[in-house]
Write a structure and sequence with these properties.
heterodimer; A: about 280 residues; alpha+beta; Ribosomal Protein S5, domain 2; 6-stranded mixed beta sheet; 4-stranded antiparallel beta sheet; 5 helices; B: about 325 residues; 2 domains; 5-stranded mixed beta sheet; globular; disordered N terminus
Chain lengths: ~280, ~325
Amino acid sequence: MVGLSVGEKHFIQGGIAQDLRSDGRKRLTYRPIYVETGVIPQAHGSARIRLGATDVIASVKAELGKPSALQPDKGKIAIYVDCSPTAAPMFEGRGGEELSTELSVALQRCLLGSGIDPSSLVIVEGKVCWDLYIDGLVISSDGNLLDALGAAIKAALSNTGIPKVNVASETSGDEQPEVNISDEEFLQFDTSGIPVIVTLTKVGRHYIVDATSEEESQISSAISISINRKGHICGLTKRGGAGLDPSIILDMISVAKHVSEQLINKLDSEIAAAEANEEES
Amino acid sequence: MMQVRPNLDYEGPKSHQHHRAFVFGFEYGFLKEKLDQKEAAKRANEQLGFVFDIGPNPWSKPATSSFGCKPSLVKMEYVSPEGLRLDGRRPMEMRQIRAEIGTVARADGSAVFEMGNTKVIAAVYGPREVQNRSQQISDQALVRCEYSMANFSTGDRMRKPKGDRRSTEISLVIRQTMEACILTHLMPRSQIDIFVQVLQADGGTRSACINAATLALADAGIPMRDIVTSCSAGYLNSTPLLDLNYIEDSAGGPDVTVGILPKLDKVTLLQMDAKLPLDIFENVMGLATEGCKAVANYIREVLLENTKQLEYRRGL
């Protein structure tokens, strides 16, 4: 991205202070969200989300695996994010690794704790379970990647159909049981409990939601909060170097809760529309 | 059910994907446990309608192969007696192509190219200042390319999206092909970056990447001698086949990839695996070249349509 001049920086900060951002939005308005589901046919579930110029794809793949010895009654879920160099030339080679790791860890923190129940993934306790691999790919980046990825994962999970498994026979000891994967029947996830991530960026004295990359270059600090439908906080990450007064953090959390209600409703309706579209085509 | 016969000329798997011949074609692939191979083979027989047997195979590599049988050893029908291929195409028929320009807003030029189930995004950044001063060329532009595959692009989940040897080789191939057609002497001391990302891989990724890169370069307005188009062709069951998909590609038969400059009628890329007698090779290469010309026609239409849209938006 080309650097910003001092005049441009003042313009952005001034606009935010007056509740009129460079693209005409208010401080707490999201860009229009476009959702497409089922974009990767060979994955069990997938979705593509466009938030302005930010474009991300999430895919969910389930493979049979063995549960870990420490938690034999739970399946395993892993989230990986990859930043494609098509989004920015600096992601070439290993350049995007730092950002990818940061996003993967933040998503794991926000979504894994309360989003999906790992005990629903177990097939035979201690022997066979589903390993869920959630992969995110950033194709085009214009700020607010975390929110977009969180929304994409939510959409991909609601699109996911895990095949029904019949355990063939009872085996004892260390033998691996025979499992037949059914072709026809699928289990859909219940995604109403999955939280959305709202990133609040503090520029000057005000907070904005859904920053573009130009606005993100001006942040003093940002908080990403994942909130579910009931209004419970499922995860929190603070980024940025500037220190924040605790009262400001509490204020930001309440603002995020308010924003998240609209976001959840909007997202759910878009996902439902996308799935309906997918079924028609 | 036919028995597996040993093929003493067999040199080994082409890539780690070779053994997983049907992974992409079927939803869940084959499990690593042997128990399901018979079930999987039964399903393969039902779905594809050919005979496939898995027996104990002493020549398989136990660590890497997911099932014991090498597909190239079995007499499989890639072309049915009626002349239909596995996905219902005729031997000389290409898969459906679709292209879209300008998908990545931040890039100088970008395009999405689909050939059947293979879907590829290309983004071009440039011409811009050279990032690494030591690589700067004083009388030409520096062209760089990176090819990466998404984790979910193949049937089995890939662990390492970039940096493996196949990706490095394909990056090199695409870079050399595009460098030959870009007028680099017009932009000295600058750098053009071509990034190609594979979203879905179903055979012919190399060709799809080159076609996507051409469109992205045209979208970025970078001066070129001609567009470069590419297509692959193979030879299975004594029939030349155009535009191989993943299953046909993994069959172990020859795979000829051709890249041409259509107006100048010159070949810029030619690669082949396995072996072919010379007269059949001419046939197959001719077929791939015809495929390239068909792609070129489509690309020209897409570019024209894009220019009309731009004119319309400018109010002309």
